Every structure is written in structure tokens, then in C-alpha cells.
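Pasting two entries for a bug report.
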Amino acid sequence: MTEAHPIGLSIRGGVKVYPGTRALKGVDFDVRMGAVSVLVGENGAGKSTLMKLIAGVEDMTEGTITMDGREVRFRTKADAVAAGIGIVFQELNLFPNLSVAENIFIGHEPTRGGVDIDTEKQRVETRKLMERLEQDITPDTLLGTLRIGQQQIVEIAKALAQDARILILDEPTSALSAAEVEVLFRVIDELTAQGVGIVYISHRLEELIRVGDYITVLRDGTITGARSMEGVDIPWIVQAMIGSSSKEYGRSEVANFGPEIFRAEEITLPRMGGGFTVDHVSLSIRAGEIVGLYGLMGAGRSEFLECVMAQHPHSSGKFWVEGKPLTERDVPGRIARGIALIPEDRKRDGLIQIMAIRENLTLSSLPAFTKLFHLNLKQEAQTARDFIKRLTIKVASPENPVSSLSGGNQQKVVIGKALMTGPKVLLMDEPSRGIDIGAKAEVFRTMRRLAAEGLGILFVTSDLDEVLALSDRIIVMAQGRVTGEFPAGTDAAKVISATTPNAQVPKEAAE
């Protein structure tokens, strides 16, 4: 089998270091020609980073890339394109105000004698690509009018138009319908028959088994399994993805839940181009309960939290806090009713970097320190000091700018700002993103303590270990819908299988 699929590109000892993290730790990876090499791993395992190295989007810190027996270095995406490498990113890189043909040929437009763009040739080639992809999309259609699945097809056509010898597909089916997925698989078969090497990244495990010839599994920046796809099943993939280790963030005290503190019913958020980003989601939280909201990128988890915080006026559905309807239509109104959100991007949405730690902490609760037109600075400073002590935020002085703190301590300031509003329900979007393992443990201890004080916590995470160890109950979302609900102590394979709701998970994987 390996003779039929010669190695077209090889990475040896691939290391990628970002400030504060080693995303890849000495990775060896081969792309075989005329075959599909699938790459799988949890969110944050390093899959997209590895692909960015191959596609010239990122420069490798250490290691070598060889093609056809000679060492190459891709310093830019143009270098990789010149070597015959195309990539379809998970996030669409398209221009909604341009036509389909203009998007497909942007940056490499056919010209007439090098003078002006040959728009007719663009149209002809676009029609051929759309026929090949079995799509009834005309070349002059404005891209922004297409639904998201059709835009994904255009992104694939854009890569095909460059006659790539190696084609990287990063989550290519995340927005496609079942019929479009079948078309994509037919195109993949056609390309591999022509000798093209394909790298295929997906979280949908049944897809990987169906489409792959070779499989590589990444975990925390290292490869934990690499083999031919013959004999590979979902339990093997799950074991290689998550291993047997589980991070210790578990509950030490006995759970003691109070009555229902929050309920959401039939929450919907329409998506541009049709369908729903949040698709009729219902859930509830009890006082003292930590509910983990798990799912893959694009599942609609963050958008659901934003709906709770009244950040999407077009959303519909009903909320209750402590049994009373939540009718307030704006963010201050929701905060006043006892809901607080810790956003995913703390630097952009949670903090004002140039302001003092004290000012950031009290930002959402200034009315509590105000009488008529005067701010009681003494009371504000004392309350800020109390919260710094309560959350063990390591600060030299509350008057220092918040930007002087480490990531973990900045996260605690965001938590403190939310707690100062006196919430009953705390929404946390990826509370451990971008902080080191010691700071994570601190944040998780804080979450446990708050729950013990009677707060209801709903937290979004892409880390399987986290959701399994921290949650009193796990809710899984996929494609905007709730696809599974599990008690604490549920097996990892069951949780993973709920993220791909159409997969037939073998019985032994779920046991």
C-alpha cells in the first residue's frame, strides 16, 4: 500500500513555539500522494498549527520539511502555493462583496497580455469548477448572498483552481449538508486517483474512517498514533486522542444542589444565509451546580451565552431566573437580574488594559459606589481589595494597570468584576483559555468555591479533560443543537460521540 502512495511531503522534528506555549513538540508527519492522510485530535492539540506550517502561513521554530527528497522552507503562503500546496481553512477567507469568480481567482487572476483581468476566462473556469463540484452556482453570484455551506464549496473551488499537488482540508464539512458532503467525498476520490495528496482534518470520527487511508493522532502537540487506516475503529481513535490521563480538577466536597436557578427554553439565533447558529436550545441550572457546555468549534456554545446576555436582538426564546421570567432586553438589565458573563476573549471583551486593576474590578458595579453624582472612592477601593483577597489575585498594588498581571491573574480580575455585580448565575466562556496549568487549577478551585456558595455556573470549554473533571452535569452541543446530556463521571467516548450525532459509535467505545 505504501508503494502505491509515495511520500510527497515530510516533516521531521517539527516544533512551533508561541509566546508562553509550545504548540508542537517534535512532530514527524508524512503526506502521501494519491491518498488521504487524516489528522485528528482534540481542540488545541496542534492540528491547525501543523497545517499552517505546511501551508506557509506560520514559520517553523525547529525542524525540517522535505518535498521530493529535498529540504524546503515555506516562509510565506505564496512559497507553499508555488510548491503546489493548497489549503482550505476552517474559517472562510472570502470576500462577501465580490462575485464567486472573483473570490476563486483572487490573487492569481488570469490576464489578457498582462494588461487587464480576463473576466470571461474567470467565468468559464468557475463554471467548470462548479460543475465538477456539482453546484448550481453562477460565476457572477455575489458571494455574500450564498448560504454558509455554498461558501465552503467556493473555498474548496478556490484551492482546486490553483492545481494543488497537496490539498489540506481543515474541517471542510463543518458547514456542509449531507448531500454536499457526498459531493466533496467524490471530489476527494477523483483527486487522489489523479495522484493528489490530501490532508483531511475533522472532528467527525466516522468521516475519518470512511475517507482516510492513513491516520495521525495529535495530543498536546505530540503524535500519539500514526498508522494505516486498515483496522482502525472509533475506540482506537478515542484512546489515542484522550489517553488514559485525566487532569485533576475534581470535586472534593459532596455536591449539594439547591432549587433551579436558571432556565432557558427554545432559544434560537438565525444564521445569515439560512439555518440557525443556536437551534432551539433548552437547558436548566440548579443553585450550586456546575454545568459544562462541551462541543466543537462552531457548535453555537458562545452564541448561546451571548443570547442569555441579550447581545443578539434577533434571537428568540424564553429565560427564567429563580422561577421569574427574564424580560429585560439589554445587558445592564440582565446583569441587574443576576446574570454575569466572563467572555472568551478577556483582553478584548473583559478588561480595559490601560486602566488600574481596581477600576477594572469595579467597572460593572459602579452604581453600588455612587451617591447622586459622587463616586465613593474609599468604598470602591476597599471593595476592590476585598475581592483581590477573596480571589487570591497576586497584585503589587490595586492601582497598577491590569496589563501588568499574568494571564491567570487577569482572568481572576474578570471573574472578580463579574462577582461584584452579585450574580446568581455565572456564565463562563472558555475560562481556562490562554493561562498556564497552575493558574487553571486556581481558576477551577475558585469555580468550585463559588458553586459551594450557591452560585449556578454554566461554563463553555473545548477541553475534554476539563469538562469531565469539573462538571456536575455535561451538555453537548453540535451544529447549534443540544445533542447529549450526561451526568458527572460519564465515559469520555460517550461525550465525544455526542459531538458527531450521526456517528455509529461501536458498543465497546461507549462502555
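Entry 2 (this is the one that rendered wrong in the viewer):
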Amino acid sequence: MSSPSTSMPVEESGFDDHARRIADQGWTVVPDAIEPDLIAAIADDLDRLEHDLDVGPCRNAFEGHNTVRIYNLLLHGENFQRIPVHRAILPIVERVLDRGCLISSLSSIAIDPGETAQPIHADDQLINLDKPHKPLVCNTMWAITDFTEANGATRLVPGTHLGDSNPNPFEHHDTIAAEMTAGSVLVWNGSLWHGGGANTTDTRRVGIAMNYCAGFIRQQENQQLGIPTQTVAAFEPRLQQLVGYDVYHGLIGHIDKKKPTFLLGGEGDHRMVWDV
């Protein structure tokens, strides 16, 4: 009989390896994870949305003075709905958090030439808990274009997810650039210190920030109020769960002891933790 390690499918072993790297250093890069046709379709959609929604830079130190961000992307078509449930990335996130994780936010970040580096921060630093703690946030950055040190690749401070503090955004921090080719995905523990890089080139750097949180944490973007129920009703079941139409650990998120999916016209029956 084969040992567990040799009988495990390559995909499962790879997911475990990435999860271990996140546990050890705080981050990992999954190279060439996303299909080229999906990357191209997302790039086209972002160009269209930027024009149709008349989106421009927010012009503050955190979001950037030369950075274009489009939020709440699940409102804007099937290509964006494929992102949270992607089979090459979601299993890694589920290993860092658990299968009850939620979408915290889904947005695009296009860093234009001339942008300066974003302040170094941790994505969970507004959660008022002592550090270090178990992962509560696991975030991903999809490279829609190549990410290089020169064009603003995400800057990382490896190992800081294991520390007992958050960074001072006004101080200098030694960082490394998460360089990767288009179609690759950076995945990191939300406690890891990081920030967008400066773009010193003459071309735009485009990424998708697909962010997840534990099922008992309030989401950064309010998915239940921000996405019409008729839109969510058309989502695949796993995506409905990820935006919050489920019950976490048999207790958190129920409506009169029913799953919120009854609001979408689906079944609401659910075994509560007390029934078990």
C-alpha cells in the first residue's frame, strides 16, 4: 500500500506546500495559476468598467494618487464571479482559514506610472486582537499584468505575520518585491506587513485583490447589502456561501435557525449546532 504522501494527488500536495510556506514565511506565489483566457477577459472587463463607471484615482496616501481601484467587482459579470472560487487558489485559502471563510472584498488595483510606494501595513491591523494570533484574514493578489520590482510589485516583509505588533506606516521597512508573471497569484496571511510598490516604469501594473476572512469576522465590503439578492441567486452555491449566505459552524449567520439561502429562493433547512 502506498504511503499517504505518495498516494496524495499532486494538486493536494501542492496546496499543502503553499499553505506551509504561508505558515512559515507569511506568503507564497502560485505561478501561472490562472487560465490566460480568463486573465485576458478580466483585463478587457476592467478597461470597460473604468470607462463606463468613470473611475479615477482616489488621491490619498493609502489608495494612491496615481492608482485606479474598482470595488465590489462581483456586481460586474461572470468573469469576476470565477475569481473567488478558482480551483487553483481557494483550496490554499481554505487551508489557511477554513472552509467557512468568506469573501472580504474583491477589487482591482491598477498602479499607473509615477505612483509612489504604499505605506506598509497589515490587512488585519484594524482587528483589535493581540498578536500573534491564528490567521483571521488571507488575501490574494492576481497578476493581470506582469509584476516587477520596477512597476509596483507588492512589497513584503517576510515573517512579520509571526510578530506581536503592527507596522508604523510612517517608518521605513526593509521589503522584498513579490515579482511574478501575469496569471500568477500571490497569497498571504493578513498579518503580514506589506504594501504596493512604486511604479517607476511607463506602463500600468494591474492586479486583482481577492481578499478572504474567517467566517466569524465582519467582511470589508458588505456583501449582503452591496450585491442585490437577484444577482446572488444566480451565483453558484459555493460563491453564495462565500459572500455570506451560509451558517458558520452551525451557529453564526442564521436567520430564525435557517440558512440565509432561503432569501434567494433556495432551501433554508439547516442543522444548528444545538441539534448536533
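Dev reply: Rendering is fixed now. As a check, the viewer should reflect this: The chain has two domains: 4-214, 224-276.
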